[in-house]
């Protein structure tokens, strides 16, 4: 039996209904600067935004700049983020990312996806979250929930990989609906 995939028009109608039921202007991560968003987004892997929001105030207060986070003892970072899990890896990512921001990007968060993807701990989803929320640049972030729903709702084939889902959804939806979707 051949899998029926919804057309672009059908996908847009379903997405419109979802947006109407669950409107969202931006990520649920709390941040004030692009650097804070980047830190919070790295910490969001394998945990909830609420859990990230519980630890980021202390991170942002103690290490408000890439220079300060880069220079911080990794143990201090690890101790703060430990409740969220994967603390060893995430602490290393935060330090490596901060070092690269300082040394390569003049302490500025890049506004290009290819440059964001060079930073330790940054994958396609996080890069797209940064572009959309930090800079207002259209991007379509695919996390496990988007993957599962887009397959279950027949937006994409059931065997689609994350990168394929991103491409398909960006083709099926107009740019203005990439983030809210």
TrEMBL record:
GO terms for molecular function: 4 iron, 4 sulfur cluster binding; class I DNA-(apurinic or apyrimidinic site) endonuclease activity; DNA binding; DNA N-glycosylase activity; metal ion binding. It comes from the Bacteria. Residues 43-181 form the HhH-GPD domain. InterPro entries: DNA_glycosylase (IPR011257), Endonuclease-III-like_CS2 (IPR004036), HhH-GPD_domain (IPR003265), HhH_base_excis_C (IPR023170), HhH_motif (IPR000445). Gene3D superfamilies: Helix-hairpin-Helix base-excision DNA repair enzymes (C-terminal), Hypothetical protein, domain 2. Its EC number is 4.2.99.18. CDD domains: ENDO3c. The keyword Metal-binding applies. The keyword Ion transport does not apply. Keywords: 4Fe-4S, DNA damage, DNA repair, Endonuclease, Glycosidase, Hydrolase, Iron, Iron-sulfur, Lyase, Metal-binding, Nuclease. One of its GO terms (biological process) is base-excision repair, AP site formation. Belongs to the Nth/MutY family. This is Endonuclease III. It comes from Atopococcus tabaci. The lineage of its organism: Bacteria, Bacillati, Bacillota, Bacilli, Lactobacillales.
């Amino acid at each position: 039996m051949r899998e029926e995939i919804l057309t672009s028009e059908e996908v847009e109608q379903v997405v419109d209904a979802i947006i109407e039921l669950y409107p969202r202007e931006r990520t649920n991560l709390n941040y004030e600067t692009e650097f804070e968003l980047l830190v919070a987004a790295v910490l969001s892997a394998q945990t909830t935004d609420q859990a990230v929001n519980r630890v980021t105030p202390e991170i942002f207060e103690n290490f408000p700049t890439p220079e300060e986070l880069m220079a911080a003892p990794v143990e201090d970072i690890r101790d703060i983020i430990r409740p969220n899990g994967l603390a060893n890896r995430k602490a290393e990512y935060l330090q490596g990312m901060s070092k690269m921001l300082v040394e390569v990007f003049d302490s500025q968060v890049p506004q290009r996806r290819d440059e964001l993807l060079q930073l330790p701990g940054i994958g396609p989803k996080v890069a797209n979250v940064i572009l959309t929320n930090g800079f207002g640049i259209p991007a379509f972030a695919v996390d496990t929930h988007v993957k599962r729903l887009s397959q279950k709702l027949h937006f994409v084939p059931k065997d689609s990989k994350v990168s394929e889902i991103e491409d398909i959804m960006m083709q099926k939806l107009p740019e203005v609906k990439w983030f809210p979707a």
